[in-house]
Amino acid sequence: MAPTTMIQHLLCDPGYRSARLRGGWHVWAGPQGVEPPPWELLLENLALSSQRQGELRVLANLGFVGYHAQRIAGVGDIRRELSAECPDTETSAHLFLSMGVQSGGYGRHKDDNDLWFWQLYGSTDWRVEHPEGDYVGTLGPGSWIYVHRELYHTVRPRGARAAISFANHYLIPKNTIKLF
After folding, report:
1. In what side-by-side order are the strands of the sheet with 135-139?
2. What does the radius of gyration of the chain's CA atoms come to, in whole angstroms?
3. How far is CA 118 from CA 4, 122, 161, 179, in A?
4. Residue (of 128, 130, 100, 118) closest to 165 by Cα position
5. For the chain, first and last CA: distance in Å?
């Protein structure tokens, strides 16, 4: 299945649409029809990010965040689909790599943008806090999670892993955005 078709499948999912409207979260478990980029391309993107000022963040114990992951084959197409879904936003893509369980992360935090997280390889434990009920679970290879802006969440790698995080950055004040 082509990335565009896969993204349309996710974006038309009634559970996702409900989560967006109510300011919640939604999980798509298991592979969603798109092959993840091979490790070689992920490492190549990480190496390129390390050569450019401000494009690589090193986390504790061999954890890395590479900015501009849209340069990875297929990821740019997905980023464009998500940008089209969310008018008045610009969507970014970040590559997360962790070499083990002890690799650092951002801890408990919230973002001021909506987040789509694609678990490529390995697994991560998630906790998303919501007044109507929290999500606590594990994302495995091929799984996705959507987290509405302003929800606290915590992500912990279960070992070596790679993932792509997509975030939409609002170009107009958030209180004037019509979601659907």
Report:
1. 135-139, 124-128, 153-157
2. 15
3. 15, 11, 11, 22
4. 118
5. 26
Task: Report which secondary-structure segment, H or E, holds 15.
Answer: helix 14-22
DSSP 55: S
What structural domains and CATH numbers belong to the chain? 3-176 (2.60.120.650)
Cα–Cα nearest to 98, from 116, 120, 76, 79: 120
**Torsions phi, psi of 159, nearest 5?**
160, -160
pLDDT at residue 173 in the model = 57
Query: Which H, E and C letters describe 122-146, residue by residue?
Result: CCEEEEECCCCCCEEEEECCCCEEE
Q: How much of the chain, in percent, has pLDDT values that exceed 70?
A: 89
How many Å apart are CA 156 and CA 105, to the nearest integer? Answer: 7
pTM, 2 dp = 0.86
Q: DSSP for 69-131?
A: GGGSTTHHHHHHHHHHHSTTEEEEEEEEEESSTT-----SB--SS-EEEEEEES-EEEEE--T
User: For 118-175, how does the pLDDT look when each residue is reduced to its tens digit (9 = 90+)?
Assistant: 999 999 999 999 999 999 999 999 999 999 999 999 999 999 999 999 998 777 555 5
Distance CA 78, CA 6 (A): 9
